[in-house]
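Reply to dn_fold:

You asked what the input looked like. This is it:
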Amino acid sequence: MFFRQYYLGCLSHASYMIGDEASGRAVVVDPQRDIAEYLTDAAANELTIVEVLETHFHADFVSGHLELAAATGATIGYGRAAAGLVEFPIETYGDGDRIALGDLVLEIRETPGHTPESISIVIRPEGDAAAPYGVLTGDTLFIGDVGRPDLLVATGVTADDLARSLYHSLHERLLTLPDATKVFPAHGAGSACGKHLSTETVSTIGEQRATNYALAPMSEDEFVEAVTQGQSAAPLYFSFAAHRNREVHDLLATESHVGWLSMEEVLTEQANGATVLDGRDDRTFASGHLRGSVNVGLAGRFAEYAGEVIPAGTPIVLVTDAGREAEAQIRLSRIGFDQVLGALLDPPSAFIAAPHHIEHSSRLSAGALDARITAVPGLVIIDVRTASELENGAVAGAKHIPLAALLEGLRDLDPAAPTVVYCASGYRSSIAASLLRAHGFGDVSDLVGGYAAWAARSSLRRSAASSLVTSEPQACALEVATNDDSM
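and this is what came back:
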C-alpha cells in the first residue's frame, strides 16, 4: 500500500493519497488546490489517480478536486447527501459502500454532523477480511476534538441538529472501529473548524476514546452542549469557500505569474476599490507602508487572516519582500482569492520616491499602553483574540471583537475615538490596526508583544508591590491592614 499524508501548516490542512501498488490505482482525499505534489508522487510510484474523494464540502479552503480531475481524468466522489448540490459530475457513496483499488479496499462510512454530507473513509489494505489500517475522518473527528456543528446556521441547518447527528456518527460509525485503528483527520491545531485541535496529525481510535473531551462518557444532550459552546467566530471567507467548492470555476494555473505594477498603477487600482495587501512582517510594515494598505504577514496564517479581513471577490494588489509575490498569490488562491491584479514593483524604492503616500504605524509597549490608559479619557481598547484565549486574562475594559468579526464590527466603533488593538503576541493586532486605519480610523495603535507583554508587565508590577509590602516593618503592615479594613 502507498499511503501519504500531505500537511499544509499555514492552513492546518491534511490531505491524503492512498494507492494499491499491485494494481497501480490510487485516490486522493481532500486535496489542496495546488496539486503538483500529488501528481509528482503518483508518477514516482507508478500510480494512476482514478478518483478524488471529498469527505465533505470544505469551508476553510478551496479544494483541488477540479484541478486533479482535469489533470488525470479521475472521477470526483462525495457522500450521498451531496447529490444534486454541485455543478459538476460526481459519484456518490453511502454507508458501507466499498471502493476497490485492488486488494486495497476503502470502506465509506457516512458520518454527518460537521456537515450533512460528511463521510469517513476506512482503509483496509487486505480487504474486509483483515483489521483496518486507519480511517480518514475529515472534519468529523479531530485529534483532541470533533468538528464544529455550527457553520451552516446561516443556511437554516441548526447547530443542535448537526450536533446530534455528530454524536451518533461518532458513537455508531467511528468508535465501533478497533482501538488500534489509526485516525487521520483533515485538520490540526490552528484550524477554525474546531476549538481544541491537537498539534498531532495522527492518533488512534483508542487514544481518542481515552483522551478526547468530546468522546468522554456523556449523554447526547451533554454532548450537544459541549460541542456547540465556545466556538470561535467563523472566518469571513468560509461561506465563500464552501460555495466555491460546489461550483465549476476557473482552474488554478500550473505556474504562478504575478505582474508588476508601478506606484501610479497601484494608486489607481486602490482608488478603484482594490485592497493593497502588504505581506511583510509587522515591524517592517510599521516602519513605512502605503497609506490605506492592510498588513497580513506571510510568516503567519496569511491566507486565512486575509480572508478574515478582505471580502471575497475584492481585487488585491500585493506588497511583499522581494521574491515572495508568487508565494502570496498561491496561498491566496488556496482559499479562492484569485483576483490578484499584480504586485508593487520594488517597494523600498517606490516608497522612497513617493513619501507623501507613505505612513508609519503607531505601536505601543505595555508600559506605554498603561500610561495611555491613564492619560487619554475615552480610550477604546479592542481585544481581537478568540473567545477561548480570553481564559488567559484580558486588559481591563477592553472590548472583545475577534479578528474574524472585526470587519463587520466596524459599524459599531467610532472612527474618531483613540483606539488601541491587541492580540496574543502582536501579529493579529497589526492586521486589525491596519484594517481600522484603512477604513478611516484616525488614531489607532497596537500593542507590541500583545497580551503576553501586558501580562508579563502586570506580573512584574505585582511582584514589585509584594516585595515592598513584605520588606516593611510589621507595624507598617498592620497599618496597611487597618487602612484596608476602614475603606
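The domain at 260-359 is CATH 3.40.250.10 (Oxidized Rhodanese; domain 1).
Hope that clears it up.
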